[in-house]
């Protein structure tokens, strides 16, 4: 999956012949899963029409500060457009637009949006070879890079002037590949390996029955997706679930029983930087599994249960440098019980769910959690989607690695 999947890209087009290639560029961004909005300088409309770009991007295209023809909505808000973007791409970036952006000459909507942007900005310059080599152009490149922007080098080849040399805008495929590689190299969890347990476990009673629980696996899968999107390699050890993931950096290890989950966790644990136990592991399993289906003979029926191994606790015992996160589901004395679990299982962080909180728990799309770290610092979060809780957990992990 592309790192651009789900990203909001603001594409700025300035007035050069390479503007005709931005139709392909928009298509490639969309194909990578990005949302695209386009700002055109007035001059660029001589090279490609706003209609083409709005059709391909499935969004209105902006090119002036206000719409003369629209009585109701006159103002095109450059600040809003800039803050909407996760990534801004100026392609083609002409010598004129580069110069304006270097100096903050704010005479069109694109430059105004650029000056308001807080996201990474990429420039794909396009101009004739002598313009590309001119000291004022290289000076502008240096300044733009000093401002924190990234230049996608122009390519060599035949130019619109008929001359041949460096200055052609990078091909759309190469622009996309450049941005993907650059974003991937800057992901905060790049190079980190994370083990995650998810879902329920099933403990067989006989060949057709089992003891299970209502865990959907969603919380663990959301954490896995979020971790992979931040660049981590993820080993997702999950009990039976209907949840799906899309990021190819996730390796699913399907298990059924608590024992299988225990074995799988220990197979991978020594090699990981982080382990997160989000599974709802059965605490007890039938002491004996009947080899044949049990018949209903007696009025009462008793199953003798034996304790399963506490996987998280065993990871805490074996812990070296791993950052270890557990979940706690409590119904009373939540904070005190969670603190005891941190100590008992040698955790770095516990994510506490209280069943007393509405909207939290099994089978719900939302969760309300409290973080408690090993120094007992407490952070109570509001009710939010499980995706948002996953992002908060990953944020904690990123901060942990930033601090060491
Ligand atoms: N856990 C585990 N292996 C088990 C039981 C639990 O890895 N056999 C993990 C869960 O994934 C969770 C944490 O331990 O991250 C807390 O589980 P919970 O059931 O709330 O607590 P327990 O320690 O089992 O204690 P109790 O059920 O008595 O509250």
How would you portray this structure in words?
It is a single chain. This protein has 404 residues and is an alpha/beta fold. The chain has two domains: 8-185, Rossmann fold (3-Layer(aba) Sandwich); 193-402, CoaB-like (Rossmann fold). The chain is 33% helix and 23% strand. It is built from 13 helices and 22 strands. The strands form six sheets. Strands 13-12-9-14-17-18-20-21 form an eight-stranded mixed sheet, with helices on both faces. Helix 1 crosses helix 8, helix 3 crosses helix 5 and helix 9 (218-229) packs across helix 13. The model has no long low-confidence stretch (mean pLDDT 95). The chain binds cytidine-5'-triphosphate (CTP). The site of cytidine-5'-triphosphate has 15 residues, from helix 11 and strand 17.
Summarize the helices and strands and which ones pair or pack.
Blueprint: E1 8-13, H1 22-31, E2 35-40, H2 50-57, E3 61-62, H3 78-84, E4 87-93, H4 95-103, H5 109-116, E5 121-125, H6 129-133, H7 135-146, E6 150-151, E7 155-158, E8 164-168, H8 172-185, E9 193-198, E10 203-204, E11 210-211, H9 218-229, E12 233-238, E13 250-254, H10 258-269, E14 274-277, E15 284-286, E16 305-307, H11 311-318, E17 323-330, H12 334-345, E18 349-354, E19 366-367, E20 369-373, E21 378-380, E22 384-385, H13 386-403
Parallel strand pairs: 1-2, 1-4, 2-3, 4-5, 5-6, 9-12, 9-14, 12-13, 14-17, 17-18
Antiparallel strand pairs: 7-8, 10-11, 15-16, 18-20, 19-22, 20-21
Helix pairs in contact: 1-2, 1-8, 3-5, 4-7, 9-13
The protein binds cytidine-5'-triphosphate.
